[in-house]
Design a protein that fits this description.
Helix 1 packs across helix 9 (298-317), helix 6 (215-221) packs across helix 7 (223-234) and helix 7 crosses helix 8. With 322 residues, the protein is an alpha/beta fold. The chain has helices spanning 61-68, 102-118, 133-144, 172-178, 200-208, 215-221, 223-234, 266-274, 298-317; strands spanning 41-45, 89-94, 122-126, 147-152, 182-192, 210-214, 238-244, 280-287. The chain contains 9 helices and 8 strands. The protein has a single domain, classed as 3-Layer(aba) Sandwich (Arginase, Chain A). Bound molecules: 4-carbamimidamidobutanoic acid (ALG) and zinc ion (2 copies). The site of 4-carbamimidamidobutanoic acid has 11 residues, from loops.
Length: 322
């Protein structure tokens, strides 16, 4: 069901008239959700980093990504779409999550995102740590049933517990499989690399149903072959995409909490995402941006562009054109 009003959607502030560095930042200078009757696509910030195991700071990512998104323009040539022209896209602001209690934050995110989805909006979240994918997948699965997952990350994030804790940024996808939120025929990690605790990390992960396209596979096989393999696995299932920005090499994303050498370039990541055009994307998150470790906004710029392409893919699904 589309909630696009009969009149044209309210688009972003025109950066050819109002300088793009003026005024408060919303994602891509889009209207706030409270300025439009309803949104077909909502970008939501989640300022939360209580689930991290190493460098904190992802709570500041929604603001940094919005600032970095000021330079985005309304036509996306790579996907030949104007994502804001015929579909109402809006910035829904930040979810007020409890910074002291992970369980409470997880419940709040599930509830708030579920309520937004109930209005008919598709959601792209920006910011926060990878703990958040669990409540986001709970909300997605409640609406769509078990979903296919494309998980871009240096890490597996299928560990069982950390310090005995079940809800952390290293464990969301183990919980998601246990809770039946994922279609275990269609689970892929992309960009995996780096040292593990032991070989069992990999065998456990495989037992949960995941396939792995390592960072080195992307280099050896190339983007087109990787996209073909992933699309084959996803088919026409409802698809959730989770992007941990540490999938990028630290040269392309220094501002993150658990950096690993040997990652994707931002060009490779964007091209793989664009290869998903036509898949049944239903929602996405962009997590693990930690602005305090960033330089020259490299990481938040990459995250803003990733979110823009994800919004573009959702807009295409909702009928947007050039
Ligand atoms: N960045 C994410 N999501 N997870 C990293 C967990 C790595 C570790 O603590 O061993
Ligand atoms: Zn990671
Ligand atoms: Zn992760």
């Amino acid at each position: 069901m589309s909630h696009t009003p009969p009149s044209a959607p309210l688009g972003p502030v025109d950066s050819s008239r109002v300088p793009r560095f003026a005024g408060p930042a919303t994602f891509a200078r889009l209207p706030r959700l409270d300025q439009v009757p309803a949104a077909d696509i909502a970008v939501v910030g989640i300022p939360f980093d209580t689930g991290v195991s190493y460098r904190p700071g992802a709570r500041f990512a929604p603001a940094a990504i919005r600032e970095a998104s000021r330079l985005l323009r309304p036509y996306n040539p790579a996907l030949d779409v104007s994502p804001f022209a015929s579909v109402q896209v809006a910035d829904a602001g930040d979810i007020a999550v409890n910074p002291f209690a992970i369980g409470d934050a997880v419940e709040t995110v599930e509830h708030e995102i579920g309520a937004l989805m109930d209005t008919g909006a598709s959601i792209v979240t920006v910011g926060g740590d990878h703990t958040l994918s669990l409540p986001l997948l709970r909300a997605a699965a409640r609406r769509h049933g078990p979903v296919a997952l494309l998980h871009f990350d240096a890490h597996l994030d299928t560990w069982d517990t950390y310090f005995g804790e079940p809800y952390t940024h290293g464990t969301p996808f183990r919980r998601a499989v246990e809770e039946g939120l994922l279609d275990t025929e269609a689970l892929s990690h992309v960009g995996t690399r780096g040292p593990l605790y032991g070989k069992a990390d990999l065998t456990d992960d495989e037992r949960l149903g995941f396939g792995i396209v390592t960072s080195a596979d992307v280099m050896r096989q190339g983007v087109d072959e990787v996209v073909a393999r992933l699309r084959d696995r996803i088919g026409d299932r409802p698809l959730y995409v989770s992007v941990d920005i540490d999938v990028l090499d630290p040269a392309h994303a220094p501002g993150t909490g658990t950096p690993e050498a040997g990652g994707l370039t931002s060009r490779e990541l964007l091209e793989i995402l664009r290869g998903l055009n036509g898949a049944a994307l239903i929602g996405a998150d962009v997590v693990e941006v930690a602005p305090a470790y960033d330089h020259a906004d490299i990481t938040s710029t990459a995250a803003a562009h990733v979110a823009y392409d994800l919004v573009s893919l959702l807009a295409l699904r909702k009928g947007a054109t050039a």
